[in-house]
Fold these 4 entries.
Entry 1:
Amino acid sequence: MLDVLGAAADRPVFEHGTRVVTGDELLDLIARIANGLRANGLGPGDGVALLQGVHPEAFATILAAHVVGARVVGVRPGLTEAQVEHLLGLDIKLVVRDADDLVRAAPEPLHCSGNPDDIARLIHTSGSTGAPKACAQTYASMTNAWTARPSAWPPAIRDLATRLDRYLVFGSLSSQVMFEYAILTLTAGGTIVVADNPADAITRHRATARVITVPGLAKLVAAQRHSPADLSTLRALLVSGSPLTAERHREALDVLGPVLFHGYGQTETGMISMATPSDPPGTVGKPPVDVEIRAGELFVRTPGQASAYWANPEESAEVFVDGWVRTRDLGHVDADGHLHLTGRARDVVIVNANLHYLGPIEHVIAEHPDVAEAYAVAVPDDDTGEAVHAFVVPKGDRVPELAELQRLVTGRLGAACAPVRVTAISEPPVAPSGKPDKRQLTA
């Protein structure tokens, strides 16, 4: 990335409102912040937590922390206070809230201090267990990823790279998806554009590309049908977070044109596959040649995958198996090489593109004094993609109100995990194995 920015020189690479930052200016900022981090005693292997917004200094701080060889933990908005406290307890030496405190007047020449086997970053999952799992990626793994290396770009990324002239960033740079596409944009010669409000940002910022969730895509398609906006600059919608049905895919292509890039990946793996506008709707494209896949319950190997969950050997052993990552998704590759996702082998709900495990939600609901047993299932939701529907077996005659359960779950796990509906049942349906049959509850 330092080479990419050096080559950019006086070309604009970051735009935030009226402020435009060139490659040379961003490189200088990285050097000054790296000097500040070192002055604060941060070096190879040390943990640094970044609680920042979306602006050039925040982006520069991430890169500067990697320059000094630190273990970077980004803290995204929307976590509960307890979850933030957990992240800040992951062997953190320095917490950065304002990069201005780190900028030094006279930067030393840039030199990268990281060691290949050191952990470069902890990318945390949604935190539905109450404590977000941190996927540990080494500097060697981050180096092996293709994002900043055009010679290693798979065909889908080569196509996408031509469309990243003005890429919108919003929400949080600690989002793996948001950050990786930003790196790709700079490598492709484009400009990162900050959108404080992404609602009409394509038109307002003349954007050519942005990340969007499946529910967000559905709303955009409906809005374009009803009251079309000027999306003439748009060349790439980066759909992520949950599966896109063939019907929704076709509808979006029909209304928006050939701009859909549907990525499939996980925090643990990075990108596994990506469908371009020319790939068949209902697939997630053809996996790159350096991504290995075992079909059925999908196990994958990617160049830039994580190596483990930080300080979590039990769950690491379940997911990171003999060099493979167990996705807990179901799928197959067809005769033409396209990957089809057919379901999930894990008990989860995906709300606004964030994955949450249903087990912890059930445990919290079961703590309510009027609940004997609790079950939670994922149901389709027009606003969030999926949402939680709770089934409770009452202890007596009283069924707890939905609002009570929402407050209980929100306080412990966050609002995304709160049920949107609750149904009282006398007992759960049972599968032939004797276990509660959630498929019947979902139906």
Entry 2:
Amino acid sequence: MINFNEICKALKQKVPFVLVDKVLELDYGKRIVAIKNITGSEAFSEYHFPNNPIYPGVLIIECVAQTSALLFSLSQEQEKEQNGYLVLGGVQRFSFMNIVRPGDTLRIEVNTIKIIDNMALIKAAVRVGDTTVAEGQLSFGVAKDE
């Protein structure tokens, strides 16, 4: 299990824009499972929508992107090879099936479809309990550290 402090060290994003709370499972280069706890104190709660907060879909996609970046970053550390970090390139066939609200815990499951040189393609499923709330594919490019 990888805790929040270790996640913050591995991601390029900084608090308060770190949207992954804990990594539960990691199969280097292949698969990762992480969680994000949705609270009523996050900035979106007041505005999206007043008196009826719904976690924005774009933030669900960002949770998946950060979980994917963690998979890539932690796999590189395991191989003692630092070639850069993942940046979102595209969102393909991503669907939202259910609403996410404060109090929910997202379980983000990311599986690698293909990694070629400086590109990666992943498939993700996001669940709250046994209910799938979103799923789809994302593509990434590798940005070099400068």
Entry 3:
Amino acid sequence: MIQFLENIQHKNSKNFFLIAGPCIIEGEDMALRIAEKVIEITNKFEIPYIFKGSFKKANRSRVDSFTSIGEEKSLEILRKVGETFNIPTTTDIHENEHAALAAQYVDVLQIPAFLVRQTDLLIAAAKTGKCVTLKKGQFLSPESMKFAIEKMTDSGNLKTAIIERGNSFGYTDLVVDFRGIPTMKNYAPVILDVTHSLQQPNQSSGVTGGRPDLIETIAKAGIAVGSDGLFIETHPDLSVALSDGANMLRLDLLENLLGKLTRVRESIL
């Protein structure tokens, strides 16, 4: 997928690529600060980098959960991040109309896991001509993602990748079946969503929990089995994050992690 992104750096480094940023856009200063720090780190290790931030969260457990600072405001911030640092950006879309809207501001559209079987949404994303990442549903087999990719290619879009984000294990946990990564690589490049794979959903509080202490473990395994890219949500202060603070990586821990992962990558080439 990254070969279609003209503004991505280190495309020929043979390293894994990284999608990283906050769960949701909380403000311009925060987004620019995170992007600047991640760019500094990814340049050091020659990691191709795509900035991620949701412009709106539609799949929340509780009606009082934070969803957005404003759709257009968030999209404008994503555009500013891309233009300021000359890097590609991505955001997730939840409705058919969001595809054409978000495509005006970002380089990559992301289809959420719960919506990856929504044919009209996939076709709408495909027809924008943008790169599209498809999150494998927690309820789907790796083999079933073949059909999601076919929906994209049948709609004329070959700029796709699959994101693995774990499988439901009971009601309140997720596990990653790493056997699925080589299977899905037969259909498209595969990105391991490290932080969402460590979520603990369906908590009695209505707020999703997580296991960020296992981020390094899951990420190392993902690189070892051949993931083309990693997806890591990060934030400077998890205690004040407006969404998914329980499973994100603290920003000051990212450099050490990416250094280790780069060495794992070198060892398997």
Entry 4:
Amino acid sequence: MTAVGTSGSLNAEAFGRVLREHRVRAGRTQQQLADTLRVKRATLSQWETGRHLPSPGKVDHLDTLLGARRALVELAASIRGEVDDEVAAPVAPTPTTLRDVYQALGRAIVDNLVVDGNGSPQGWTRDFRRDLGVTPLSSAYAIKTLALIDAPYVDPHALGTWLHGAQERGGGWTSRGSGPRPEATAVVIDALSHIGGPKPLGPSLDVLESLTSGPARANTFILTSVLEVLARMRPDSAFTRRTVRDLLALRQAEGTLGVWPEKTSGAVGGRPRPSAAHTARAVIALRILRATGAATDADEVDEAVAAGTQWLLSGSHDDVIRENLEPKDEHGRVRDLEIRHFTPALVARALCLVEDPPWPRIQVLLDSLWSFYDAGLGLFVWPNGDVPIWLQYDAVTATRLAAERHAIVPQPRAVPDQQP
């Protein structure tokens, strides 16, 4: 029996394509199917992308649930016969070192650079799998990631010139065509500092200060994005001191500790929940600031960092959460400014900054992080198939910091089939 959608040599990628076709035809989401199978959604995503072949028992269950009439069972059996392997195992080539991962990731980022008819760089789209349009924010994350992995730029001067030209009227940068935003402007300024201009960044920092006002001062993600840049470029400024005070004011009590909540404005249904992603972001930004020697609210900052770190150590904290930065515009319409926080990477990075890092806990977080890695693409991928550029940046910052601080370099690991 020939399975739909396969051609040429049978392999796990062919199985993944057919599995996805049957799932979509059955009207099930990845999460729904994963819940029924009692596996993680990341595991199901790895089956669909061809990184892993499910165990025979799981294939049989999938075939029954999706009404595939033995198509999945026979296809998987053919693949196992071809590779002569009766156990579930990774079938895509798996990099063995961080160097391998970074080289593949760097090539993938450079290959996805958008250029015009003259070959001049025009930046990057915010998702490598979907044509969502180039934005200054996504381009800035690509530049920052390439800088972290020491990958060669296509033309740093041309990229800097393009980014400067992409400013909104009056200054500042946008994320998705929504007008200048503080978090986008902060990330672009940081990227431009990595490639050395080509123009002075002082005026852009002044614009950033004007943008970080109103509702922005009650959003942890925005404040931490801004503070990371200020810690490097204006650690002792009045703007930095105000940002620190605003960030500390967002803490809420969780037991005897102070942590940062999921959101503080526009919340529905009562008290915002404590958030590992937001607490990790705050701990990271405040530690970066303290490393500069800035005296900005030093005692309160140290207490907040210690309490936040202690809370991060108190649980697993590897859930991925969504947040809409600006749920409604001035006319009450919902705006598409949603972000997803890569919690395992953020918490791992925060804990790596501890004086005596808790390596067993960090390794658990890194294992969760690697479950999002697709060796075939050389990129980190969301379970729904999205490949956002900032996901690559978060993964690289966490793994590189772990490698720098740990005697043993953390390496990508094959993620086993999740059994009930």
